[in-house]
Design goal:
This protein is an alpha/beta fold. The chain is 39% helix and 10% strand. The protein is built from 13 helices and nine strands. Bound molecules: iron/sulfur cluster (2 copies). The site of one iron/sulfur cluster has 12 residues, from loops.
């Protein structure tokens, strides 16, 4: 790890992150997303030269992570490759992008292998740190139906060894939804017993992890459900303190479809099911989802406890939307930020401290939760000691997450899994 990776902590800041929605064009048809191709909406793409200037600014101001998202980023493959190179040249180390997998359809055609080889070679020639492929169900037919991309799963299965041969280990990105484990009508029933709901979701996550492992993935991440009017239906007697008030559709990756709408009570059970499932697969798959963050979310939804470390959206993390290219605190708050802060300096004493817990957008929530204590250690060790004394469970899980992240080489897509290091995280009876 380089000094510049940790230097922001000594100023009470986290390393900066920008999520840039390069375009909102998409050829997928996912019901859980407002940017699906069948939805009539204004489509937009950013000016590439403006994006380069923004990247230069972010690099100079000490930002270290940058994601190019969409829509479907690879509809603009040439631009995205150029921008990845530009970001690396600007000194940004953790550059990420991904795809819905449309380039992997048509795998029965004779030119498939040559096509994917060329794609993998182009990506391998950049300094991309993370390359994700989205899959939303353990049932191939269900996933392809939802995405509107027939044959994509077979294509992904054929493409993965080609990517591995080029030294790229893509991660699979699951957008958690009611069909995660395959279509199960019970998970749509509003009167389903909460414990049964949790049990079914645990089975769904197991099925999903087993499925993507068998497909050939070595890294997996989960996007927490973000629904419009996010407190969901139909249960209004929620047992959590979460509220979706104040959220807006800056980023269109949410929808009102029942497949993605959950009550706060259901969300709490989902986080619990994921928290319980992860340990069983950590020795086989590099699972990015930090359990400390899930632990906080469970307490938030089941006990109405505010997470220890607030989201850094609008402080060190920002979202750039494709329409006007405006900078927002995140994908879900409508405010516009005048410019990026200089993360090499301390925030001015009058700067507002982060306090937002409105949603659980994992892009911002997970790193806030994981790195918040490091910034606190460097600037307010006494306050950290108080947190530690009052919340030993959170810190025990955080330390284990950090050890696990190390065993996974911090999910660098250029490295194969170190199964010996990961095996130390196998739970009893799950060594194989
Ligand atoms: S989730 Fe991704 S692939 Fe699906 S419609 Fe939205 S942007 Fe497109
Ligand atoms: S918790 Fe973070 S991502 Fe969610 S609305 Fe607040 S600042 Fe935005």
């Amino acid at each position: 790890m380089r000094f510049q990776d940790i230097s922001p902590f000594f100023k009470g800041r986290l390393p900066g992150q920008l999520v840039i929605q390069y375009a909102n064009h998409c050829n997928g048809d996912c019901p859980q997303c407002g940017m699906r191709r069948s939805r009539s909406m204004e489509r937009s793409r950013l000016d590439k030269e403006k994006v380069k200037r923004l990247i230069d600014d972010a690099g100079e101001r000490g930002f270290q992570a940058l994601s190019f998202t969409g829509g479907e980023p690879l509809l603009f493959l040439d631009d995205i490759i150029e921008l990845i190179d530009h970001a690396a040249g600007a000194g940004i180390r953790y550059v990420r992008t991904g795809t819905n997998g449309f380039l992997f359809t048509g795998s029965e055609r004779p030119d498939f292998e040559a096509r994917i080889n060329a794609l993998a070679a182009r990506i391998a020639a950049t300094k991309l740190y993370t390359f994700w492929i989205s899959i939303d169900s353990a049932d191939p037919e269900e996933h392809e139906r939802m995405r509107g991309l027939p044959g994509v799963i077979r294509g992904i299965e054929k493409a993965l060894p080609i990517f591995h041969a080029h030294g790229i280990y893509p991660s699979v990105n699951l957008g958690i939804n009611r069909n995660t484990g395959g279509r199960d009508a019970r998970l749509y029933r509003p009167d389903l017993d909460p414990e049964e709901f949790r049990r079914l979701f645990r089975a769904a996550f197991r099925r999903f992890y087993g499925f993507v492992h068998d497909l050939g993935f070595t890294i997996v991440n989960a996007c927490y459900p973000m629904s419009d009017e996010g407190d969901g239906q139909p249960d209004s007697t929620d047992d959590g303190g979460a509220t979706a008030e104040g959220l807006a559709k800056v980023y269109g990756a949410s929808s009102e479809d029942r497949v993605i709408r959950f009550t706060p009570q259901e969300k709490g059970r989902i986080f619990q099911a994921l928290f319980e499932t992860i340990p069983r697969y950590r020795h086989r798959l590099r699972i990015f989802s930090p359990r400390c963050s899930l632990y906080s979310l469970i307490k938030r939804y089941q006990k109405n406890e505010v997470p220890l470390y607030p989201c850094r959206g609008g402080h060190e993390f920002f979202f750039v939307e494709s329409g006007q290219g405006r900078i927002h605190p995140c994908g879900y708050l409508p405010g516009v930020i005048a410019g990026l802060p200089d993360l090499r300096r301390r925030p001015s004493p009058s700067a507002k401290r982060p306090d937002c817990h409105l949603c659980e957008w994992e892009c911002f929530r997970d790193p806030s939760e994981m790195m918040g204590p490091l910034a606190e250690l460097c600037t307010s060790p006494l306050s950290l000691a108080v947190h530690l004394f009052r919340n030993p469970g959170f810190f025990r899980i955080l330390l284990e997450d950090l050890r696990y992240y190390r065993a996974c080489d911090f999910f660098n897509c250029r490295l194969p899994p170190d199964l010996d290091a990961m095996r130390r995280f196998a739970v009893r009876g799950e060594q194989s």
